[in-house]
Amino acid sequence: MNSLQVAKALNNNVIIAHHPEHGEVVVIGKGIGFNRKTGDSIPLESVEKMFILTSRHEQEQYKQLAVEVDERLIEIIGEIVSYISQRTGTALNEHIHIALTDHLAFAIKRAGQDIAFHNPFLYETKEIYPLEYELAEYAIGLIHRKLGVDLGEDEIGFVALHINSAMTNRHISEVRGHTELIADLVSLVEKELNVTILRNSLDYSRLLTHLRFAIERIRRGEQVGEVEKLDNLLKEEYPELYSLAWKLTKIMEKRLNKPVYPAEAGYLTMHLHRVAPPQIQ
Questions:
Q1: Potential cystine with 96: which of 127, 166, 231, 272 (Cβ 3.0-4.6 Å)?
Q2: CB 131: neighbour CB atoms within 10 A?
Q3: How far apart are CA 216 and CA 214, in angstroms?
Q4: Where among 68, 94, 125 does a domain terminate?
C-alpha cells in the first residue's frame, strides 16, 4: 500500500489518516484536506509537502489545536517549518508544529487585543542564536505579509527559541532556561564590576558566546583542558576577576545541576578582563 487512507479531515490543511508505515497519523499539508472524505486514498507520491505527527501524545494535542486555530496560520506554519528544514538541513523535532501553532495563535490573539508582551532576553537570544533569529525573522515576516499582523521584534526572539528547541531536540523550557541563565550571569558581572556592557559591542558578543559554550560543555559533561600555571597566574594577577569568575561557575553549577570543572573559572577570568574597568584590569 503506497497511499494514505483518510480517516477524517480536520480542515483544509490537516487530516487524520492511516499511513502504510506509521499507522494512524496526523498529516499537515497545504490543501491536503480539501474535499477529502473518510476512506479516500491519497497516493504518497502526490503529496508534495507532508509533515507527519507519529507520537500519540503529539497527535492528540494537535487534533485539539487544529480545530481551534485559523487554517491560514496552519498553512503558514507548514511553510515556515519547510523553510527551516531546507535552510538548516536538519530533521526538526515534530513537536515544533504544536509549539509554534500554539505560541503564534496566542501571540496573534494578544496582538488583536493590543496586549504587549515584552521579551526580556531579546538581546541575548539574538546574539546567542543568530541563525535561529534569522529564521524567526522570516517566520514573523511571513505572518505579517499573509495575515497582516505585525507581531514585532519581541516575538522574533520567542520564536527563535522554539526553532532552537526543534533543531536541538531540547525542551523549550531548557532552551529558555539557558538564555535566562546567561542574562542573569551578565547582569551579575555588570553589578559586581560596576560597568554597563554595550549590547552591540564585540566584548558583549564574546562574553555571551563564551557563556553559551561553557553552559553547553557543562550540560554535556565535557572537560576543558586545565593549564595549572595559567590558572595560578590569573589568580595572582586578577584576584577580583577570578573570584567573580568562580562565583559565576558556582551559579552555573547550581542552576544546571551539573558539576563545573575548575578550569572554567580561569577561561572565564580572561573574558571578564575584556569588560572590566581599568582599575580592576
A1: 166
A2: 14
A3: 5
A4: 68
